[in-house]
Structure formats: C-alpha cells, structure tokens
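Weekly sync, protein design subgroup
Attendees: M.S., D.O., the rotation student, P.L. (late)

Item 1: inverse folding check
M.S. brought a backbone from last month's batch and wanted to see whether the design step gives back something sensible before we order anything. D.O. pointed out we never logged the input encoding, so this time it goes straight into the notes. Structure tokens as presented (483 positions):
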C-alpha cells in the first residue's frame, strides 16, 4: 500500500502553505497532497465570476515566506492563483500534488500509529488507500460541487438565465442586459460593479444591508517601503503594519460599535449621490464586524451606483416571475439574467469521515484543541482560518506549531499525540459569527470548550499567544506505539 509520513488534504492556499512549512522544518518527512480536483489553487481556481478578487490585502493574505510583489494589494482571482501556483513551483511542492484524489475517509489504528486514508479517483470512481502517520486537513470550508441557493418561489418560471457565482458559465453574455444580483455579501458587492461595466443595468437585491467599506486597491506605502528597505524587508514591515491595521479596525468596531457605524456611514454618504437612502441600503441591523465586512475596492460599488448603471433594492423577494423578480413590496424588477450570490454550503474537513480504532469519530462531536486538532482524534490537524483577518495568517502560525510538535515528538520517540478533553467541560459553538452560512453549519462543526487549550482564538493575536507557546500540554497525550 502507498505510504507517506504526512497526507495533506487539498492543494489550495492552505495545503500549499502547509507543504512549504513541512518541507522547511521536516525535510526528511515524506508527504503527499491529495487534491480532489484537476487543478491547484482551490477557491482561486474555482471561482470565475466577473471581478472575482480578495477582500484582504495580499501582504497578509499572501504567505509570510514569499513576498507579494505587485502594487495591487487587493488582487483579482487570476493574480492570486498565479501567485499560489508560482509558490508551489518555486518550492517543488507541485510535484507532490496528486490530482483527482478525493479523500473520502480516514481510519486510525493505534497499534500501528497510522491512518489509512481512503481515496477516490474522481475520474474513474476507483478507490485506493494511502497510509500515513499524520493528516493535515487543508480542505477549505465549503462544498465545491454546489453553492447555496435558498428556495425561491417561482424560480422555474423565469425565462432568462439563473447563475450561481460558484458555477459561472464561461460563455455567459450579459452585455447590455438587465441583471439582478441577489445577495449582499462580498461576492455580490464585487460582482455588481464588475458586471455594471458591460451590462445594461445591474440591480443588487438584498434582504439585509451589509457594511461596505471603501478601500484603495493599491498600497502606496508598501511600494515606498519596498523601495526604501528592499523587497523582503519592505514586505515584512508592510505585513506587520497591515496585520496591526486589520486588528485595530476589528477591535475598534468591537469596542465602539456606534462610532464605527457612524464612521462607515459617513464614508458611504460621501461616495453616494446626494439624497441617496444610505440608511435603507447600507446601514445593517447588526454591529460592524458581527458579520464579515465587505470591501469596495477603489469605491467601485459606489462609483457604479453614482454612474446610474447599478442600484440597490432592499426587501424580501415574493417570487420569481417570467420576466424577473417580484418584491414583497409589489415592485417588479425586470431581468434577463439573475445571479444568486446567496453563498456557500459549508463542509468541514472536506466531507471525509473519521474512524479511530474501529469507532466512528464524528467531527461535529469533537472539541477543538487549540483550534487545530480534535479531541479524541490522534495525529489529525485541520486548518480553519479567521473570519476577521486574512485566512493565511492562520496557516502560518498553525503550521509552525505543528512542525514544532512533530520535532517535540521526534526528540522523545513519540509517534502519537491525541488531545483528551474532560467530558464534563461545558462547550459552546466553534464560531461566534452572525453570517448566514456559518449559522447554517454550526451543527457540522466541532465545539470549543470554556478554557484554553480547548478554544479557538478568534484573532491572529490570540493564536500567536496560544500557538507560539510550548507545544507540550497536559491534555495532549503522547505515546509511542512502536515502543
Ligand atoms: C470568492 C471568495 C473570496 C474570498 N476572499 C477571501 C479574502 O479576501 N481573504 C480571506 O482571508 N479569505 C477569503 N476567502 C476565504 C478563502 O476560501 C480562503 O481564504 C482560502 O482561499 C482558503 O484556502 P484553503 O486552501 O483553506 O481552502 P480552499 O481554497 O477551499 O481549497 C481547498 C482545496 O481542498 C480540496 N478538497 C476539499 N475537500 C477535499 C477532499 N475530501 N479530498 C481532496 N481534496 C479536497 C479542494 O478541491 C480545494 O482545492 C474567500 C472565499 C471565497 C469563496
């Protein structure tokens, strides 16, 4: 049977990053990245809708070990994808990616201290197995095969095209057409101005407004620092500054929600036409950062609204009609194309099932250990990034911790590490975040406990405090199965 030391599940931002740290810190360990699709890049290969981009700056969303060199800090999907693939090629990680390999299950044996990973060939449906000592699950957080669409009354009646951003048809022609985009999250906020450039008219239909913060897409200070200090040191300083800025903004919103709301509102007012109903369309009922904040790069959404090519309607949809959408208010929105930017279907650990010594280990029944391991599941780590900062920050701090844990175990001759939680410990949901897709999925997620290390720190700063400490912990039990 095929055998490696570490199986990494997924060749997206997290999997490629994890492979880098593993190679750097444990060059003697063998590893394979098992990727279900025929391409690397994950999210940044899958999503092809017009204008697809990050809303984090790439100085923090890119890897710490590989400077982001473009002056565009809020980058588009193709640029991010090139960066990921160049990283994989530069460090020889691409040679370890096995495509069309979906991990469907993993079964742990304590007597051999090995996982047997069941893999499906997504071309042929054939099953095979790989054994390993550790699994690092970097499978993202959502289903790739279908995006989330709530049930809309009358959907089948609509005579135009209905498109979900996760499955964008390459040949969709919307030039000069009337487009309705349903949704108010980052995807809708990106799509509307991008489509407005060629569409006849784009209307964003939202049930509830989001906070939309205009930010410049270029980071002039980053370029200046790179010129002054050199590429590497300039990037390192920009990254630190941006981590600080992201955190300070989030903190400010948490501590002073009313002031944050006023500040964002005043920025919106400045960008919108005189007399625009700002409170109706841009003043959410929840506080800033209770849900992920949307970014309008270079104020593109506001510019599209000012130009008259885009508008926003806030309210409930009654039904789809033959010609568009009818709102509960009675207003009809004619459309040739309807885009359902209604979100993702969350799927933790790539949908794989786990078994420990013959007993099923339901991921949802576990308690998170340091936000990266699961109670009762040996030698298994997973990446779940931040909702309030760049996901990749988590990849770095988590992988460094895992590599130190492996070194600690090597030095003492251990081959097994399992977090053991007190069954009486009170638990609470994995995430405290208001976004619909998170609320819908909490039942599939692990729980967190009431104290460290059974917590998932919600911020990078919290993770730095937790994960940069000693790896040994009385509640992480080590053993040596091979004596
Ligand atoms: C449109 C969009 C924009 C985003 N913008 C930002 C942003 O600006 N900032 C930010 O921090 N986050 C953003 N995110 C969140 C984003 O998904 C992550 O930041 C990051 O790309 C996640 O990388 P990942 O490698 O963990 O997961 P993914 O990119 O989802 O990659 C997971 C990989 O694992 C593979 N996989 C899954 N299950 C299995 C399995 N069972 N077996 C084998 N392979 C499997 C998938 O095929 C995929 O290639 C955005 C998300 C979306 C959808």
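Designed sequence read out in the meeting:
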């Amino acid at each position: 049977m095929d055998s490696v030391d570490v199986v990494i599940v997924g060749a997206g931002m997290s999997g490629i990053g994890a492979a880098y740290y593993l190679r750097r810190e444990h060059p003697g360990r063998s590893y394979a990245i098992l990727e279900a699709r025929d391409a690397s890049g994950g999210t940044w290969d899958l999503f092809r809708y017009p204008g697809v981009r990050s809303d984090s700056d790439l100085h923090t969303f890119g890897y710490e070990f590989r400077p982001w060199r473009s002056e565009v800090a809020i980058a588009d999907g193709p640029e991010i994808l090139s960066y990921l693939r160049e990283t994989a090629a530069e460090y020889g990680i691409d040679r370890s990616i096995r495509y069309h390999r979906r991990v469907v299950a993993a079964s742990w044996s304590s007597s051999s201290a090995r996982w047997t990973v069941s893999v499906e060939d997504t071309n042929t449906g054939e099953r095979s197995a790989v054994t390993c000592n550790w699994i690092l699950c970097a499978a993202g957080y959502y289903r790739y095969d279908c995006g989330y669409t709530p049930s809309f009354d009358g959907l089948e009646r609509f005579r135009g095209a209905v498109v979900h951003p996760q499955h964008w048809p390459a040949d969709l022609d919307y030039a000069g057409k009337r487009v309705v985009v349903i949704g108010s999250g980052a995807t809708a906020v990106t799509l509307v101005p991008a489509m407005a450039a060629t569409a006849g008219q784009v209307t964003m239909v939202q049930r509830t407004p989001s906070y939309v913060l205009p930010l410049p897409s270029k980071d002039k200070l980053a370029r200046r620092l790179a010129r002054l200090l050199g590429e590497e040191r300039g990037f390192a300083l920009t990254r630190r500054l941006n981590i600080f800025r992201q955190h300070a903004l989030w903190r400010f919103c948490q501590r002073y929600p009313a002031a944050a709301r006023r500040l964002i509102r005043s920025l919106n007012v400045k960008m919108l036409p005189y007399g625009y109903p700002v409170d109706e369309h841009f003043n959410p009922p929840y506080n800033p950062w209770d849900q992920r904040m949307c970014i309008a790069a270079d104020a593109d959404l506001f510019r599209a609204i000012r130009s008259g090519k885009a508008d926003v309607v806030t309210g409930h949809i009654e039904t789809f009609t033959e010609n568009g959408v009818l709102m509960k208010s009675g207003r009809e929105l004619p459309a040739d194309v309807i885009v359902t930017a209604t979100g993702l279907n969350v799927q933790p650990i790539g949908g794989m099932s786990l078994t420990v010594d013959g007993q099923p280990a339901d991921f949802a029944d576990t308690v998170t250990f340091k936000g990266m391991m699961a109670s009762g599941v040996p030698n298994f780590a997973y990446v779940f990034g931040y909702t309030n900062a760049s996901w990749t920050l988590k990849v770095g701090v988590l992988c460094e911790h895992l590599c130190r844990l492996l070194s600690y175990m090597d030095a003492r001759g251990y081959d097994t590490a399992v977090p053991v939680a007190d069954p009486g410990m009170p638990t609470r949901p994995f995430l405290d975040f208001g976004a619909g897709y998170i609320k819908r999925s909490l039942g599939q997620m692990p729980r967190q406990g009431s104290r460290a290390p059974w917590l998932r720190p919600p911020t990078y700063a919290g993770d730095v405090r937790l994960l940069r400490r000693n790896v040994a912990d009385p509640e992480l039990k080590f053993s040596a199965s091979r004596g």
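Discussion: The mean pLDDT is 95. The pocket of flavin-adenine dinucleotide is lined by residues 9-15, 34-37, 42-43, 47, 52, 54-56, 61, 102-103, 138-140, 144, 187, 350-352, 383, 385, 390-391 (CB under 6 Å).
Action: P.L. to compare against the previous round before Friday.
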